[in-house]
Amino acid sequence: MKLYYSPGACSLSPHIVLNEAHLPYELVRVDLKTKKMEDGEDFLRVNPKGYVPALRLDDGAILTEGPAIVQYLADLRPETRLAPPAGTLERYRLQEWLNFISSELHKQFSPLFNPQTPEPMREAQKQRLGGRFDLVVSSLDGHDFLMPQGFTVADAYLYTILTWSPAVGLSLDPWPKLRSYMERVQKRPGVSAALAKEREAKKGG
Asked: What are 37-66's pLDDT values in tens digits?
């Protein structure tokens, strides 16, 4: 399989899951500004949406959208318990989290990355995200990860989004449980390996 990614982008989530699931894969870096891959080819031919992640399966099929990709990867290695079995209530709880992270956290960061966003709107977005963080913290009471059974693909996604906070001037100091959560996630070998690989890629330019 090939994961089309950009260092620090939301493609970090499936990168983590690939490691956690111990799946063989190849990384293909994408320049999101030029829409070119490292070999100079047009990324839009891979994913016309123009953004990462995208996953090329062994049969050549292309899968896009992070929440779909991470569930696909988890189902390839059910023994890792990165996703509950399909059809169970727990699986729908996982999808509930993935949808919340996608719509209420991921997309809420977008205006903060846009330098044209007016300051009043920027502050309103931070307040909105703060309320969402409160909900996440309340859900972490009594267990280390989002799901009571342990680390899942939802944690890979949430962790990825939370790493963006410093870049947009959103301090996590008011949420010490979120900081502790991030530390727990980051200690996982699959997570630290993905972070190291992406840091190395950034340094390489």
From this structure: 999 999 999 999 999 999 999 999 999 999
- Across the strands, what pairs with 35? none
Q: How far is CA 21 from CA 125, 182, 184, 193, in A?
A: 34, 20, 18, 13
Sign of CA dihedral 64, 51, 110, 19: positive
In the chain, the domains with their CATH numbers are 2-80+190-203 (3.40.30.10), 89-188 (1.20.1050.10)
Q: Judge residue 147's burial from the number of C-beta atoms within 10 Å of its C-beta, 0-12 exposed, 13-18 middle, 19 or more buried.
A: buried
Within 38-118, residue ranges assigned H as helices are 66-76, 89-100, 107-113
pTM over 0.85: yes
b/e per residue, 185-194, with b = 16+ CB within 10 A?
beebebbeeb
pLDDT band at 2 (very low <50, low <70, confident <90, very high): very high
User: What 8-state DSSP symbol labels residue 42?
Assistant: B
